[in-house]
Each structure stands twice: as structure tokens, then as C-alpha cells.
Protein 1
Amino acid sequence: MTLPGSEKTKEHSIYGLMAEFGQPEALLEAAHRSFAEGYRRMDAYSPFPIDGLAEAIGFHKTRIPLLVLIGGIIGCVGGFYLQYWVSVIDYPLNIGGRPLNSWPMFIPVTFELTILVAALSAVLGLLALNGLPMPYHPVFNVERFQMATRNRFFLCIESADPKFDYEATRRFLESVAPQGVYEVER
Amino acid sequence: MESEQLNKSSEIEATVPVIEPGHTFASVTDKISAIVLTQRTPRFWYVGFGLSFILVLVLLFGTAYLLTMGVGVWGINIPVGWGFAIVNFVWWIGIGHAGTLISAILLLLRQKWRQSINRFAEAMTLFAVACAGMFPLLHLGRPWYAYWLFPYPSTMGIQPQFRSPLVWDVFAVSTYFTVSLLFWYMGLIPDLATMRDQARRRFARFAYGILAMGWRGSAIHWHRYEIAYLLMAGLATPLVVSVHTVVSFDFAVGLVPGWHSTIFPPYFVAGAIYSGFAMVLTLAIPLRKLYGLEDFITLRHLKNMGEVMLATGLIVAYGYIMETFSAWYSGNIYEQYMMWNRLFGPYWYMYWALILFNILVPQALWFRTVRTNPVALFIIAICVNIGMWLERYVIVVVSLSRDFLPSSWGMYSATVWDYAIFVGSIGLFVCLLFLFIRVLPMISIFEMRELVHDTEESR
């Protein structure tokens, strides 16, 4: 159990500190400065995608394209093999001696299944990588945060960051011209 | 690069913007979410929903009667075994194509004007494909065996025939529905989060909260989201082309004169986009008026959609001309007779009505004053909807009714049950749309915020 009031407990008992901004440019600027200051465990929240914001907080690569490629290949190979197996191995029908592996006739279904599995891996991969569905997240404890889906922009530096120090981080966030700084309870 | 392209059409930009000036992130959010959350449900909603629900009941009654009595209650018989069911199937699935085109192809082409119409166009796609999928199932006669169409380890030891376009159709349409649903839901997630945060009623917060899955607008999430969205658009684009191509194979692979033609795939795809845009206009023009959304769905959108209709309509017209030409040029007696039969046979009025609605009336779109006049556009869109239905009627019924042997010719006329289920499917479509605009934001809110942001920057 933690003792209330002391510095040490504050850092452990809260999820982080959150700054609010009125404009996307201000958030982008603050994100750049936080990264330059040495913070790494942070996230920016905006009501629409902002170019360069993910890069500003140090996130560059996503594995989604790879997942979609793998999904597409599975759909393609699996789809063709399904038809091959049905038409040649499991249920061969000799129609006038025509070849059983009539591959041009298998292209449409192969194509459709390629798209189907690739699309499923895009959407399910997106949800899985984003950790959704997530019924509870500490950022929602900040009352103002419901404006994050309307017209407000937020930057949250997490207490898990090695450089996080309640007083110093608060002072830093206040220096990047926010419209408010809030504690994020766990 | 984008701004350069926009500058080229700066004349149109200056006169008719894609979003009226003066809007902020907050105002677009409030205006669109208020339609669902705080505004009183307007009276026309109750009237429209009520009327369309009556048609849904007609559909249910017609379907129940059909399932009890069998497909004999329809007008189908040999030689015309396909009738209304297949005409309606092709018509509905074609209508669906515009939604995917708007959300995927126009996204890849960086057409900013798509952003205020993509949401309900995608919803329209889903509902149209749902209506479409119903018809082949009912046409099976015993829909409860529909799962036989899929390969599964059956105790009968049989498998589907993968060389048949009808099996391709099963895969194409079910993939199309699934991908459209995923694409639509994915686009909705950030807006569902907005609805969750804007809603004041407990139940609404809970329901939107569950559906939003805890979306919080994190920059990292947005980053993945944008890439995944682009990839989905890239996947949906060839898909939408393939779906109507496969539908056209149902005909083109057959030997019946009037079906067996290589022009079918491109001509079907163009026709699908044509009818789809007509349906988007049919829905958008009254909606923007009734809900006061003229700021978001501006005359520029209507004008652009009119231009797409004109272009695809001309491709369709080219298809008709080439069909006639190749029938004559083939020197094949059956092909030539098929064409003569279409023009002057017992169903001549269908063909000439089709030419009137699909080719002649839409030529008015050449005039700018027509393209920027909502009432005129609405009338033309209705004409195209009818025309495209007639086109499928001509292809399906007229071709089948007189093929190679005069002794096997026969006439087709639809029964009251054909009409009941067709009209009922329109009711189902409209009813689902009314429910959609009542419970979900009909315009993509986050994309409108982006649009506000971009137009502010370019100023």
C-alpha cells in the first residue's frame, strides 16, 4: 500500500500527466518537444489523424502491411488448393476427358478468397495491434478527455516513463503552452 | 501535389466548395451527431419508416407464401427460368457498387469531395447487397439447403462444381458483403467513439461505447488506422470490379444468344457504377434537404456525381451499340434474331423504354445548369434507376424467352408475388436506411474534421 502525499507514491499511483491543446499544430509541437526532452512512454490523442504525429512521438513502423500480405498469400494459396483438392482429389468428375486441374476456372474464387483473407487480416490485425476492444483505459478518467473525440487535442506522458518525475514533468508540460494539465488516475 | 490538383479546378472550388466555410471541428461534430442524439426525430422519419416498414411486411408475406407454395407462384417457367429474381439480384448488386467506388476508388484518387458522402454510400452498399443476396437464395426453391453451395465435409460425399460461374457468384457476393461490412465498420469506429462521448443518455453511451471498442484517438492507433484504411481501399477496388464481372459471367459463360458475349464484364461494371451513382443521388438529394445538410453535401458533390453518371452512362450506351453491331457483324442468325427480337419483338416496349431512360434522358447532364439543379438531377437519377432495371429485364427475360428453337419459345409475365417481393425488397432497403440515419452518423465526422483542417491550412 502507498502512503498518500509523498512524491514517490504519486508517480506510482497515477497513470501519467496529460496536457490539453486547442489546435492540432500545438499538439504536434508539444509532441516534438517532449520527444526531444527525452520522454518515450507517451501518447497523443486527437479527434482526427494528424500527419506526422505518430512519428513525432517516436512511432514509425507498423506491421499492418505485412499482416495483409501474409493474409493475402494464405487466401490465395488456400483458395486455390481448396478448389484443387475438391476438383482433383476429393470429388473428381470426368467430363469428356477434360483435365481435372482446370486452373483458369479456379482463378475467380482464388481471387475472391485472396481479397477476403487479406481484408480480414487488415481489420482484425488493426484491432489486435491497437489492443481493441479495450473496455477500460486510464485516460478516460480525465473528465476533459471526452473532448478528444470532438475538438480537443491531448498529450499524455505516462508515469511508466523512466524519465517521469511528477514535479519536473508537470513543469515541462506547463511550459509547452497547454490549455490545461491533468493528472490521469489509474 | 493535392493542392496543385485542386488549384486546377480552382474555379469550381471558389464557387462551390466541398464544405461551406465557417465550420470548425466542434461545429461539424455537433451538427452531425445532433441528428442522432439530440434533435427530435422529424415527422418525415416516422412517415418514411412507417411506409417502408409496410413494404417490409409485404416482403415477409410474399416470402412466406413463396416458401409455402414453391417458386411456381412466380411467373418463371421454361424457357424463362430466371425472371424477376435474377433481374432484381443484378440490379441490387449493381446499386451497391457506387458505395465501394466512392469509399475506395475515390479515396485512392484523393478526391476530397467523397468524404461527406462515403458513409451513407457505404451503408447503401451493405443494404443493397443484403437485398441482392436474398434473391438467388429464394430462387433456389429450397433456400434451407443454401449451404450446399459451400464446400464442406458433407455426409453425401459431394462437393460444389468450381467450374461454374454460379459457384463463383457465391464466393464473390459473400466476399463483397463481408469486405463492405468490415470497411464500413472500420470507418465507423472513430465516429462511434465520438457518439459515445457526445451521448448524454446512459443506454446510448453504453451501446456506442461497446461498438466503439474503447477507441481513444491515440496517434499510434490513427497511424495504423490510416494505413489499414488505405490497404482496405486498395483491396476493395479490384474486388468491386470483380464482383460485377463475376455476375456478368453468369450470363456470358452461358450459350443463350444475348448472353454469350465478351463485352459483358466491362459493360456490367460500368452499368453497376451508373446505377449506383443514380441511387446515391436519389438518396442524397432528399436527405440533404430534409436534414439541412447542404453545407456538407454541396452542389459540388451533386455536380460531380452527375458527371460520373454521364461518363458511365456513355460507356453503357457504347455497350448497347456494340451489342447491336456485333450481332449484325457476326452474321450469326441467332444473334441477329436476338437483336431484332429485342428491338421489335413482343417485349419491344421494354427495350425502347430502356433506351429512353438510360441513354436519352441522361444526356441532359451535358448541361451545367442541369448538373447543378438538384430537382433535375433527382428526376434523372430516378430515370436511370428504372432504366438499369429494364436493362437487366431485357438481358434476362427477353434473351431467354426466344432462343434457338422456335418450338421452345415462351412468354414470361411476372405474377403478383414477383412484384410483392420486388417492391418488398425496396421497402427493406429504405427501411434499413431510415434505421441507419436514425442511430448512426450518416456523414463521417472525423473525415469532416480533417476536411475542415485541410481547408483551413490551404487558406
Protein 2
Amino acid sequence: MTLAWIAGIVVLAAVALLLYWRSREARSPREVIDAERERRRVEARYAALMREAKEIVLLVDRDNKVVEANDYALATYGYSRDDLVGTDIDTFRVPQPGVTAADRTRQLVEAGGHLTFESVHRRSDGVEFPVEVGLSIVAVEGEEYFLEIVRDIGERKAADAALRDSEERYRTVFENATSGFALHEVVLDEAGEPVDFVVLAANPAFETQTGLAVADLVGKRGLDVIPGLAESGLVQRFGRVALTGEAERFEMWASGLGRYLDQQVVSPRRGQFALIVLDITEQRSAEATLNADLERRVRERTDELEAANTELEAANTELEAFSYSVSHDLRAPLRALDGFSLALLEDYGRDLEGDAADYLRRIRAASQRMARLIDDLLMLSRMTRRGMTWERVDLSALARSIGGELGDDDPGRQVVFTVAPKMTAEGDAQLLDVALRNLLGNAWKFTSRTEGAQVDVGTEVHGEERVFFVRDNGAGFDAQYADKLFAPFHRLHGEDEFPGTGIGLATVQRIVRRHGGRVWAEGATGKGATVWFTLGPRGEGE
Amino acid sequence: MKGQRLILLVEDNDDDVELTLRALRRNRVANRVDVVRDGAEALEYLFATGSHKGRDVRDAPNLVLLDLKLPKVGGLEVLERLRADPRTRRLPVVVLTSSNVESDLARSYDLGANSYIRKPVDFTQFMEAVNQLGLYWLVLNEAPPYVD
């Protein structure tokens, strides 16, 4: 606008100057020469103006015919000078609804000889473009002309439109957002501390989210219109955001509003803050309900578990007492049976007739067997209840040591005993000792009638699994009973053939299972037996 | 002491008393065995109170064979009381019991038992155990100095 004005004034001045010089002709020859020189200079200046000005400059007579046009006008409208001069100015004008040329003239006169308005012009190729027109009435040598300075404002229009569009979009978002949004200006005291704020704007959702009527807020002081604000400490908190620009987000119980609010505070410019608010009361109470529900269920489950635990503890204590009693009280009568049978044999052996001595010996044997059964049962029960201590166990060393003891116990036996080196596994050393002791004890026992007895302890990898084995070439067993071997009290051999209680392999199975492993056996009658076992993922050996 | 080899047997089971006495008679290690039938009586005997009031406390046994599962006062408590009293603190006590429950073993040694023997069911083994026990504690072992 300003530029157009300056250009207009310059052109006006140039035209006026030209007309003035033309009016001063016919002087002395000397003066004539000077005047001629001066005239040329002025014309050159005028020509430069007409050539270089980057606004359309038109001089139009009272009949709306163009009498002068600058180069920029020619270039913009797309005409040659000859075509343009004498053309009706309406050729370029795109008629504007509701505004006639006569209206313009009237307006121009009313405005005192100068008028600025926006319109639309058309080029020779038909393309239209928005313009700002500065229209003035000028008098040249008694004749009145219209001086039109026309500026292409296409870019400005586009920028304005873009800005309007952008504003429109933001406004739409602001108006339709479901989050409450409000802009505020902080009020500071003399020390520069925030003491209140003024609500500048708030969207409809702000009302929904806070329950505060937007109409009552805008333009008001926060402390005057927001209940509970003074006690909340929020004025200072919001003020800090507005002054430091450091955004905040927090959830709080707004007691004055009776709601839980999720508040985001950002500062769009120093001294102002925008508040984005969400009412999360329902969500909170739903969470609270959910939490309460969860807590209640946890409590119930805990109670149940505790009850079960107490029961289990009671059962365990009972079992403990039972085991203790079995261990102590059941053995005493057996000892008496055995002891007095022996006393009879010793003191009255000579008086006993027939099978009497044999019967007494049977009583003793039965007593001792029952004592062994009791011991083995207690062992089995202990293997189940005992806590486990995990550590890396050297199975090779363990097997060698047990084999050594078995050899010492029975020095008359010749057994070839081999143990694979470097077998280790994660497990409970004491439980594994009991398991290996049972397995090797069996191997020793069932090879007692075998020529060239051999017992091997080793390991193999089956697929992804580490498997250990104890193999002997002894009496073996009928393969169809292989799965019954591990049931307590189940025996595949007569007591007279190989003594035993039938609890050893049940104990081994219990121990292996406690390690997360499996145990199984292979064998054939007279062809020896192999007991395989794994120690589960955790006990995985090397 | 006076060259006497006295054993106090603390045992409530008649059969076990009879069998233990039989075993002790057979090996002739002790020349006197006194028997008490429960923990309370054991304490009265050793501290010369109650039914044993007036007994000469100086006539102390050389060895106490102590069962754990006893009426009235249990064996472990008897042991605890003996070890708490200066007069009986050094008295050799061998736990002779049916139990081989780990906690009993641990408790007995913690309370100061000198030895722990599990009574075998096989009487041949039982006699062998008593024989060795008597030999060791009454013959081989140097008795602790007498406490006034």
C-alpha cells in the first residue's frame, strides 16, 4: 500500500514537472537553449520513471480512455503501447458485483479526489489477477484525468488466504477439541511474582472438562472465577511455566471443582500460559475400583494360600511326628522280638527241640527285615520332604567314592567298576548321593551271582538331553515289568534270591523328579540292567 | 568312684531295659547299673531330690545311657539340665535311642552329649554296640575330674 502511494506521488510529481516546463517556452535564445536542455533532462527523468516503475501507472481521460501507460503496465496487461493507448480502461477491469464505474467516480469525488480500493483486472490472455487500485483525479493543463496506480496483490491475497485458512483450521481444532483448552495471561506483583492470571480464551471443551462456564471465565481474573484456586498453589505453578517456558504435566484432585484433572501447561509466549485439561475422574475411580478389586482378589488368594500353607504345615508336622514315632516306637518292639529270640537261642538253645531254633531264627530275620523296611520308608519320605540346596555336583567323584565303599563292605567280591570322568550336574549333593548309592547298591547286589561282574557309570547325549546311566551285567529283569520297577515295595526278585525292600528305585525316582528329571530302566532276564536318568533343565550336566 | 563302675540307664521301655541289662551283664564291664524310667526320675536321681532324696550325690554314675523319648521330662531336656548344673556338667552322657532323626542328633550334640548311639534292631549288633560303649567309656576313657 505504502509503496503504491510513494510511486503514485513520484509519478504525479514527474507529470506536474513536465507540464510546468512545457508552460515555460518562448524565452530568450539563451534561455531557450537552457530551457531545451532542461526539458530534455526532465523528459529523460520522466522516461526513466515510466520505464522503471514496478507498479502499473495509467493516465485515463474523462472518457475512460487510456492516454498514458508505463512499461510495467504494458508488460503486465500484455499489450503494446499502440494497442493500449486509446483503449477503454474497462477492457482491463473485471466487473465487480455491485460496483459500477459511476459508483467509483462518485466515491472518488466524495473522497476528495483520491480513492484506494481492491478490484480484479484481466490481462490480454484473459488471466485475472487481484489488484489494489489507487485512483486520483489530476488536472493537467486544465484537463482533468484519472491517474490509476495499480498493484498486483495476488501474492498478498494468497498469503492472506493461507493465513486465514490456517487460522480457520486452528480455530476448528480449538473449538472442536475434546480436551479443554484455555489461554491465560499471568498477573505479576511489583516483585515480578505471579499472583493471578487473566483468562484470555477458552474452548467449549474447557467447560465440559472443568465444569466452569467459559462465558464466565474469559476476561476475568482466575482467583475471582475459579473455585479453590487460591488454596491449590496453581497460580504460582502456572506462573512459573509462563515465566520460564518449561512445560509441565500433572494430575491432581481439584477440590474446588470436585474432579481429578490431567493438566498440561505450556507457555506460548513469555507471560502467557495455555492449559490443556482432561477430566480423568471417571478413569481414576475406575482405576481405583479396579485396584481395589485386584487388592481384594490378591488378599483372598493370599488368605487361601496361607490357609493351604497352614494346612500343609500341619500335615507336614503331623507327618514329621508320624515319622518320628515310626522311627522310634516301631523299632522298639522289633528289637524286643529279635533280642528275646536271641536270648532264648542263647540261654535255652540246648532245650529247644525240632524246628524251635529255626522258628526263632525266622522271627529274628523277620524283625530285622521289618526294621530295614521302616528305615527305607523313612528315607523315601525324607527324600520327598527335604529342602533342596542347588550346587554343582561332581557325579564322577561321587560314584567313585560310593563304589569304593561298596567294595570295602564286601571285599570278597570281584567287580570291574568304571566311572566316566568329569560328569557334573546342578543338583542337591545329598539327594544325588542317596540316588547313586541306591543305583550302585542295586548293581552290586544283582551282580552278586554273576561271573566277571561289571558295573559302569557313564553319560550320553540323547538329542538335546544329557542322560546319565548306571549299567550292570547282573541278573537283569523281565523287560515287560520295566515300568513297575519304580513303584514302592514292588520287587521283581524273591527275597531269598536278592534281599531288598523294593523302596530303593522309588527313592531314586523321587529324587530324580525333584531335580526335574526322568528315570527309566532297560534290561532283560540274565542280561543285566541299565538305569537311565536325566536331571532336568536345571540339573543339566556336562 | 572307688573303683566302682556305675552306669545310670535312663529308659522307659521294659524290653529295652531288659535287653540293655542283658547286654551289659554279658560283657561285664559295669559292676552296677541303676535304672530310672523317665526324665524326671533321672534328674531326681542325679541331683538327689524327690524320690531319690538322701542319695549321696557323690555316688555319681560313671556313665549315663540316655534315651530321648521319655515320659514326663524328655531326654534332651534332661541333658540340658545336666549340662547347666556344675555338678553334672562333665558327666559322660551317651544318647542311646531308636531315633536317627537328624534334628535329634544335632540337638543332642549341641546340648553336649558325649556320644550318640542308635539302637540296632539286630540284637547281636546291639550287644556289640553296648560292649564297645562300656569298654570305651568305663575302661579306656579317662573320667573327668570330680566336681565338688
